[in-house]
């Protein structure tokens, strides 16, 4: 039981931070940052939704939102948005399911099998959340690296060159955390499923035996009643 609680709580903590990392990564503006910041008087960051410029000296930040989502954007931007939003939804819902499945939460306290299945569903959802999260963040980072490397290889200097920033790293960390917490929860389900099943099945025969014994005790009254009734009928007949 102690190991079960430990796995649940560790999975819950990791899932909480992982979902938070994915959400913060999706809605922050530093997926790409200018690589030559030592030569610049400002730091330029690009996110999935807007681009921000921060002055190095006074710290003033100016952000420009991209055009409408219906406007024409690069495939990298559109697919990364879709995958990160999917990861956010799956990880958030998976964390909520996990909270309901914890033994310390008074939700279905007399149904341990159902609570374990809730933990299994949560683990599967977190594993699924890690897949689009890691795909979107790694693909975005690789695309930025390839773009920069091709410019350097062809000696093309556009004035600003980008590398992937902390938002992209945060997306990768959240995705790996989802994989870790999902693995812990699924293992927790399969390790302790037989124990809970054994308790359930051991309790079931007791209830069944009790009900059958009650039936036997109840049925034992019928012969005596029938005997008394037959004796009375015999006496009335002789009379």
Can you tell me about this structure?
The chain has a five-stranded antiparallel β-sheet. The chain has a domain at 1-29 and 73-194: Butyryl-CoA Dehydrogenase, subunit A, domain 3 (Up-down Bundle). It contains five helices and five strands. The chain has 239 residues and is of the alpha+beta class. The radius of gyration is 32 Å and the shape is elongated.
The stretches of 5 or more residues where confidence is low (pLDDT under 50) are: 197-226, 231-239
pLDDT averaged over residues: 75
Specify the helix fraction band. 55-70%
Main structural class: alpha+beta
Rounded to the nearest angstrom, the radius of gyration is 32 Å
CATH architecture annotation of the domain at 1-29 and 73-194: Up-down Bundle
Question: Which class of the domain at 1-29 and 73-194 in CATH terms?
Answer: Mainly Alpha
The largest sheet has its strands arranged as 4-3-2-1-5
How many strand units?
5
For this structure, the CATH topology of the domain at 1-29 and 73-194 is: Butyryl-CoA Dehydrogenase, subunit A, domain 3
């Amino acid at each position: 039981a102690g190991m079960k609680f430990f796995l649940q709580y560790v999975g819950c903590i990791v899932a909480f931070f992982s979902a938070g990392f994915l959400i913060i990564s999706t809605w922050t503006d530093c997926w790409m940052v200018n690589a030559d910041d030592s030569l610049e008087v400002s730091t330029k960051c690009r996110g999935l939704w807007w681009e921000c410029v921060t002055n190095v000296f006074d710290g003033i930040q100016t952000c420009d939102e991209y055009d409408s989502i219906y406007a024409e954007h690069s495939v990298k931007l559109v697919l990364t948005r879709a995958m990160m939003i999917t990861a956010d939804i799956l990880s958030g819902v998976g964390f909520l399911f996990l909270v309901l499945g914890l033994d310390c939460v008074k939700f279905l306290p007399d149904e341990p099998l159902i609570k374990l299945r809730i933990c299994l569903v949560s683990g599967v959802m977190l594993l699924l959340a890690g897949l689009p999260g890691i795909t979107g963040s790694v693909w975005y980072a690789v695309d930025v690296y390839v773009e920069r490397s091709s410019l350097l290889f062809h000696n093309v200097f556009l004035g600003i060159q980008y590398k992937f920033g902390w938002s992209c790293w945060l997306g990768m960390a959240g995705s790996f955390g989802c994989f870790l917490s999902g693995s812990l929860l699924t293992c927790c389900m399969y390790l302790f499923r037989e124990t809970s099943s054994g308790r359930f099945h051991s309790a079931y025969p007791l209830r069944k035996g009790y009900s059958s014994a009650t039936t036997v005790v109840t049925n034992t009254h019928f012969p005596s009643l029938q005997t008394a009734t037959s004796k009375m009928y015999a006496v009335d007949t002789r009379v």
